[in-house]
Amino acid sequence: xxxxxxxxxxxxxxxxxxxxxxxxxxxxxxxxxxxxxxxxxxxxxxxxxxxxxxxxxxxxxxxxxxxxxxxxxxxxxxxxxxxxxxxxxxxxxxxxxxxxxxxxxxxxxxxxxxxxxxxxxxxxxxxxxxxxxxxxxxxxxxxxxxxxxxxxxxxxxxxxxxxxxxxxxxxxxxxxxxxxxxxxxxxxxxxxxxxxxxxxxxxxxxxxxxxxxxxxxxxxxxxxxxxxxxxxxxxxxxxxxxxxxxxxxxxxxxxxxxxxxxxxxxxxxxxxxxxxxxxxxxxxxxxxxxxxxxxxxxxxxxxxxxxxxxxxxxxx
Length: 316
Prior knowledge:
Layout lengths: L6 E6 L6 E2 L10 E6 L5 H7 L4 H8 L6 E5 L3 E8 L12 E8 L2 E6 L4 H11 L7 H32 L6 H33 L9 H64 L14 H22 L4
């Protein structure tokens, strides 16, 4: 972090070979300024370089739904979302990245660290990476989409594993499938409007992106494909959960059926044993030593008749 607090990093692309800036006092064209959006000094700096009050309010606002806003003939402001790959974070806890193209320079604004931006800065420090502001902008789009695609690849692997074990999933795996469904819903919530924002960007015909129009269209198509992939995963997970629910219902119905059959068999037997088990005078066979054996034989015969009756009625 620079001494200015709000300025995380800055690079000059005016010479064709990017150079890191150490002096942030002068705002010049063909530069990249990477800023901390939550720093209290940021609004004053944005105002000092000619950014309107209304746009500054939009930049620092908490409403970070992906969108595109054209400002004048050449400038624009975008809000994009990326997966959270920071240690200990969940990818679906998406990060917000603001991009403001103003007076020939690109200003990016973040609240939390972006792994994609960090890797881009490391590439520039090694003398690699983009060589112009336009190339930088498209590279950011490519990195954001690439990391979302990586997360979706892991999701596809998980879904394939679940499908292979669909009839033997334990409770923990079922809970993981439910959590995956929730994560995809959260991703879909932001990536749908992000696709619309990239579509609006492509149709704006900005001078900055004249020579990078094909790469921009590729990233717009990639974002559309990502959104469609998430939708297909959501549909497929719904099918898997329906299958598990149906299998659970069938198992419960089957168990209930067998319990009903057992109860049907033992209900008359239980009635008779209860009736002959009362301890009052006058019960037949109390003085006959063969009475118990005859009673047990009668119960066995009655059970056999019930079994044959259930088989004939196709209950068994």
